[in-house]
Each structure stands twice: as structure tokens, then as C-alpha cells.
Amino acid sequence: MSKSGPIARGVKAKPKNLTGTLKRLLSYMKDSRWLIVMVAIIAITGTLLQVVSPKILGNATTLIFAGVKEKTGIDFTKLAMILLIVALMYIDKAVTDFLQQWLMTIVSQNTTKRLRNELKAKINELPNDYFDKHSNGNLMSIAINDMDNIATMLQQSLTQLLSSTILIIGVLWLMLTISWKLTLVAGLILPFSFLITKLLTPKAQENFKKYLHVQGSLNGQIEEAYNGHTVIKSFNYEKKSEQQFQTFNQNMYEAGWKSKFFGGSMMPAMILLKNMVYVVICTIGAVEVAAGAILIGNLQAFLQYSTQFSQPISQFSQIWSGLLSIVASAERVFEVLDEEERKSYEQSFPNRLADEAKVRFEHVQFGYGEELLMKDFSLAVQPEETIAIVGHTGAGKTTLVHLLQRFYEISGGSITIDGIDSRNLTHEQLHQKIGMVLQDTWLFSGTIYDNIKYGNPNATKEQVYAAAKAAFVDEFVRKLPEGYDTVLNEETNNISQGQRQLITIARAFLADPEILILDEATSNVDTRTEMLIQKAMKQLLVGRTSFVVAHRLSTIYDADKIIVMDQGDVVEAGNHQELLEADGVYSDIYNSQFLSAVA
Q: Residue 595: what pLDDT?
């Protein structure tokens, strides 16, 4: 049912360029560079306060210890001053932490906002074959889950990374001013920390990527099962659908616990290492104090520094896990952004400016793969001519109109509109000339009025109502309690299928295109609605060149020309009566429908 992602198909996701991905992601933060500079200044200020406060607090301990030891009494005035200074420093540190988080929230949200805008613009420029190969659920997961993950982890990880780096440098310098021997012992945590990170990082990164891919596949399966729940129940497919869900869910569980296990194991390993080093420092420090080599206040300060020194190193595992998560999500976003867009040809193709045909297919070749579906298709359509396209399933009817709209690029030959090669037009210029009504209706959650006006945002109310009346939409809309202000729900199932189709036809007519395509537009409607559409076509197809793809031959009897396609080529052409008299493919299709109707 689902066009699953690579993990769901059993392909092992491999970590990619971590440094390159991070560098590219940081390039999206250039608009926030001054905020980042402010964050850096605030982080330096806060870290300096955090670094200096233990040293000053140690002076208080030394003052108390000296007063007790020498029996001179404690200078409470001096002690109060020291404690007041430390308290103010702690308050200032809390303020800097708040400002740092606030500014980084702005930076991270600005970054993901820019990424989302690029992703949305990119999706609009992707060719149709991209959506043929990728599930909607996976794309939704990238646009929502991965973007949220980048925003959250970017805020947390970069803030911690910046503060931790400054803290390590400052603490290391002050520890050296107290005792180089104890600093050397504290420094033992560094090589072992990097060893732990080296062992656990590859597994964590690999499973982070797996988790996100499986999450996209699971979203796709849930979306398909939800949209097709009626069909699933009708064919007793509930158990099979549940088995598919359980398979994706199990894959997500496996990747999830492994990514959390390997990523989360770094923190307890770092804490164990930190505690072992702390015990060694306490032992050696006590000996140094007893020997008079270090003041007791300085030892207290050093123990605090050793905790501060090991804390960012321990947090580095969390920071690293966050960075791995950011990279995994960013890679998925960049994969979409790096996809090849719809072709925009730099070179010009020969035009036929003197051509009298409105649309001309000339020796067109096309195939979805290496094998060509159309090998040498030619057709000339005159202005205001209605061309009906019929043929058995797979004959190439829909492919023909998709090529006209450049949803797919031709492999050879040319398609011209008003004598101009369609490849010389931008996609916007081309689609302004062509309107299309599909077999599968698409309406968005909104009012009926807004759905019709979608065809021409600049249309007046009178034009919207005129299009609705011409498409016989006005008749049933006026009977609804809210009329044109009736809000269609998410699945637009509060009106019938035929009514939905009429609204899409009214929308296409409001757009007033030069060329109109009806791709089996009447296949999902009842006989009465089909008759309404036929009446509407007689009024609204006047002055337009139109292509009508139809299975029901009763909708195309009045077409100026009927072309019969088979395996990508035109095998017959003529009007209804001429093709019946020819007793060929069209006659076979007509007789099969007529006989089935009689039966």
C-alpha cells in the first residue's frame, strides 16, 4: 500500500558528511549572525561569572578557616561582603542564561523558518516523477518532524556547546593557577571522554538516521490507512493493514531504542569517569592541604572547578547526541532541496510562428523509463476545436495531456502552442494558458466560494457566481444553509462527489484558460450530473481549445474530432459517426459500452 522509505525496504541507512551538513546548516543562520554575536558575548559574560565565583567563595572558606585556626575571630563584615558579591554573581549568571536561551530560540526559529520556506518552494518546483517515487507521509515527516527536531536541538545544542567551550577554557586556566598537579589529574577525563564518544557515536548516528526514515514510512502508512479506511474495511483488510503498521512500528522501535541507548549511554559513562577522577583529586588535594602546599579555600575552589570542568565534558555526550540528531534531520531536508527540479531549458527550441494550429504534437517521443511509450506521436489541434481522447486503459490518454502541461518532459519531438515550443515557455506562462479538471477532485478546507475563486484570485463576486451558474453549482449551493459560505471539511465529504466535481469545473472555467483539459471529469458522477456537465460544456467550451479524456463515450459524441489511442499512438481519428462506420477500435469500445449498458 505504501511507497515506503529505504529503511522499510531493508536498505541500511549510512551516516553521511557530518561536517559538511553542519556547515551547510550554519549557512542558514547568516541572517541571525548579530544575534549569535550577542549570544556569544552573553555566554562569555555568564561563563566568566560562573568561573570566578568559586574562587571568591573559596576566599570565604579560607577566611573562616584562618579565623578559627588562629583564634582571632571571623571578620563577618568581610565575609558578608564576599557572600554578597557571590550572590550577585549568581543572580547575574541566571540573567545571562535567560537571555542566552531567549536569543537562541529566536535564532533557531529564524533558521527553521528559512528552511521551511526553501523546502516549500522546492516542493513546488519538483517534477511529478519525484512524487511518484516518494510517499506523502515521508515528505510530511521531513517538513514537520525533522524541522521541529532541528529547531529544538539547534537551540539546545548550540547554546550548550558555546557555553561549555568557554567554561572549559576558563576553568582550565583557573585550575592551573591553583595547582598544576591537580589540573593534570583532572585532565585525565579528556582522552577517556573522547574514547567513549568515538566508540558510541557511529552507532548512535546510524540509528538516528534509521529512526527518522522509518518514522516517515510509518506516517505514510497511517495516512494511507486513514484515507482509505472505508476500502480497508470493505475488503476485510484490517488485519493486513495492522500487520503493516506493526512492521513499521517494530522497525521504529528497534531504531529508536538503539539510537537512544547508544546516544544516552555516553552520559552515564561520562559521569562514572567524572566521579572516579573526583575521588583521585580529593585524595591528592587532602594530602596537599595537609602538607601546606594548597590553602583549604583553594582546594574547595578546585573541587568546584573540577566539577565544572567535568560537567561540560559529561554534557558533551548530550550535545553530541543533539548534533547527530540535527544532522540526521538536516540531511533528510537537504536531500529534498538537492533534488533535480523541473527542467528550465536555457537554449531555445525552434518555433513555428506561422503555424495555424493552436496545439501541435510533432513526432513526440516519451517513456517513463528506457522503453518508449510514445514513439512517434503527431497531432494538430485547431483553435476552438474540441478533441476527445479515447482508448483502452494504458493507451496513453492521460500521458498525452500531462506532456502538454509539461508534468513530464518529452524524450523527442516537440509540442507547440500558438506556434511556440512549450519548452520555450516558463511553467507559469504555460499553466496560465491551460486549465485542467481531474478525475480525482481536489478541494481544500474552506468555503465553497473560496474553492471556486481559487481558479482566479482576482475574480469579482459576479464572475464567481457566473462561473458557478454556468457549471450548475449555483443550483445546489443556494439550497445549503450557509450557501456559498458553506465550509467544506477536511475530506470534503459534506457534499457529494458529483457536487465536488462541479465545483472543480466551475473553478477551471473561472480561470478562463485558452486551453481546457477534462481528464475523465465525468467518470465519478451520476447520469444526471453528467448531463449537467455536458450542458455546461456546450456553454463554456465556446471560444476554447479543449481536450476531453473520457471513458464514457456518451460525453464526447459532439466533439469536433475524436482520436483513438493505442500503445501511445493514434490509431484512428474522426468524428463519432465516421469512427463508427470505420468499424475499428472506436467501434469496438462503443459496442462494448452499449452492450454492457443494455445488459
A: 59
